[in-house]
Each structure stands twice: as C-alpha cells, then as structure tokens.
Amino acid sequence: MPFGLLVRVNNHFQSMIFGGVLVRDGTVETFQWVFTGFTRMMGDKHPQTVLTGEQKNDVFKI
C-alpha cells in the first residue's frame, strides 16, 4: 500500500511533519482525495512542491 508523508520545511530549514496517509491503492483519484483533504485542513493553501519518490527526478512545481 502506498504511504504519503505530508511534510513542510520552515524558515529555518527544519522539517515539520503534518501527517501521513496510508492508502489502499495508488490511483489518481485517491491521491486527489488526499490532497483535497490536506489543502482543506491547511486553510486552502496549496503545496508548492510535490515529491513522489517514484523516479529519481520526480519533482513537480505547482
């Protein structure tokens, strides 16, 4: 099962863990549901970068 870790880096370059999610499948719809819930909990602030870890250079700037 895919595991997602929701992390932020503060102004002092320290990692802050907001939460983790263990999902049953890795479909696009599931990850959309995770990010929708996460942005709702963060006051509708969207992430600036998404790291997937699937391939060596998978970094998405939003």
UniProtKB/TrEMBL annotation:
GO terms for cellular component: nucleus. It comes from the Eukaryota. The keyword tRNA-binding does not apply. Its main location: nucleus. Signal peptide: none annotated. One of its GO terms (biological process) is regulation of DNA-templated transcription. The keyword Acyltransferase does not apply. InterPro entries: FHY3/FAR1. GO terms for molecular function: zinc ion binding. It is found in: Nucleus. Keywords: Metal-binding, Nucleus, Zinc, Zinc-finger. Belongs to the FHY3/FAR1 family. Putative transcription activator involved in regulating light control of development. This is Protein FAR1-RELATED SEQUENCE. It comes from Aegilops tauschii subsp. strangulata. The lineage of its organism: Eukaryota, Viridiplantae, Streptophyta, Embryophyta, Tracheophyta.
